Amino acid sequence: MRLVVLGGGESGVGTAILGKKKGYDVFLSDFGKIKENYKEVLLINEIDWEDEKHTEELILNADVVMKSPGIPDKVAIVKKLKDKQIPVISEIEFAAQFTEAITIGITGSNGKTTTTMLTYHLLKSGGLNVGLAGNIGKSFAWQVADEDFDVYVLELSSFQLDGIINYKPHIAILTNISPDHLDRYEYKYENYIASKFRITMNQTEDDYFIYDADDETTTNWLKNNKTKAQLIPFSLKQKHQMGGFINNDTMEMYINEEEFTMETKTMALEGKHNMKNAMAATSVAQLMRIRKQTIRESLSNFQGVEHRLERVLKIQNVQYINDSKATNVNATFFALDSMSTPTVWIVGGVDKGNDYSELMSLVREKVKAIICLGVDNKKIIDAFGNVVDVMVEVTTMSDAVRTAQHLTEKGDTVLLSPACASFDLFENYEDRGRQFKQAVRNL
């Protein structure tokens, strides 16, 4: 069996290693440059590879192709593979067939990283032999090749879900859905929604689907479509027979006749959206029979996620917050919603078809100045030019942070929450967040 891997990053190299171990004839091809550390791994494992090109005769003879999530379907080589009816799958689909482990799949436009990290923290604290993979850390395929976990918590993007055929998580979480990555879905929101719901398409009556009952897009889909999985909703507004609910200042969870309660003020995470993330993760912990005392302790000592509403420093009584992971409008909505002081907002980057109108009331109420950090800021300026008194355009992070310092007074907050992808000025959102933190420390 010939396995061709497109993309020489974390998921590609992990898949190549697993494929080799399972006896496939493996070839890896990357149209860009493969990083030196990955080249070394490929050489040590005696895996054939090429970079900065796709040689068709070495690719189109595949029995199966694993495509890295960053490669769009419209790329020429992918179209040729599909024309030849060669299966093109994701790393998750490839690796899942080689493990007996229970998987917990977590997707959503926002909150999935926090929910994934928190779920992993709860299960690990509960003593389970658990791995963390997907969009985070070491790739799932690589871990299936090298490790022996009983349970995996997987953060899954829509791109990874596009490439599944038979994969099913035992427990699936959909945190929410808002327009994102529409450039990859022909600018059709319904295509993106369908992609997210692939997480539950293979689930059976023995599996569980955990979702936000306050999210209109999700509840509409569930009204019109069927999943066999047992439904576990969570909500800030309404109580369900089974699921989670915030009642005044108490989180109440009812799963399989078991009740769990905890005061929200004793939780480490703040903000309404984090209450939802906590209910989703706690649902998993209860389904996996983690002790209530362990769940309470874990929810109160969880550290949070880098680049997600991360408090960096307070300088001259001004709080600097790194929310670089906010790559869409919905994520920035949560960030602005949780601000309780006058805010200087650093925004901008590569716009993925954003509609800024839903931020309007929050910007009027909370934002005193906007700093546009991007190559093309026209849409942001058109949206908010008449709403805030001060708008400044900059092209480096250090300029953004220095400008923000000049615009603040005691008691204000400086919030980096870009609502856009980072690829115009930065390598990725992590690079953008780290540059922000460095610039703040240099003040």
Automatic annotation (TrEMBL):
Database matches in Pfam families: Mur_ligase_C, Mur_ligase_M, MurD_N
EC number: 6.3.2.9
Catalytic activity reported: UDP-N-acetyl-alpha-D-muramoyl-L-alanine + D-glutamate + ATP = UDP-N-acetyl-alpha-D-muramoyl-L-alanyl-D-glutamate + ADP + phosphate + H(+)
Pathway info: Cell wall biogenesis; peptidoglycan biosynthesis
Keyword DNA damage: no
Record domain Mur ligase central: where: 106-284
Binding site for ATP: G108, S109, N110, G111, K112, T113, T114
Keywords from the named record: ATP-binding, Cell cycle, Cell division, Cell shape, Cell wall biogenesis/degradation, Cytoplasm, Ligase, Nucleotide-binding, Peptidoglycan synthesis
Any Gene Ontology CC annotation: cytoplasm
Cellular localization per UniProt: Cytoplasm
GO biological process: cell division; cell wall organization; peptidoglycan biosynthetic process; regulation of cell shape
Transmembrane domains' residue ranges: none
One MF annotation (Gene Ontology) recorded for this entry: ATP binding
Domain Mur ligase C-terminal: 307-420
Domain of life: Bacteria
Primary localization class, coarse: cytoplasm
PANTHER family: UDP-N-ACETYLMURAMOYLALANINE--D-GLUTAMATE LIGASE
Protein family according to the UniProt entry: Belongs to the MurCDEF family.
Reported function: Cell wall formation. Catalyzes the addition of glutamate to the nucleotide precursor UDP-N-acetylmuramoyl-L-alanine (UMA).
Name under which the protein is recorded: UDP-N-acetylmuramoylalanine--D-glutamate ligase
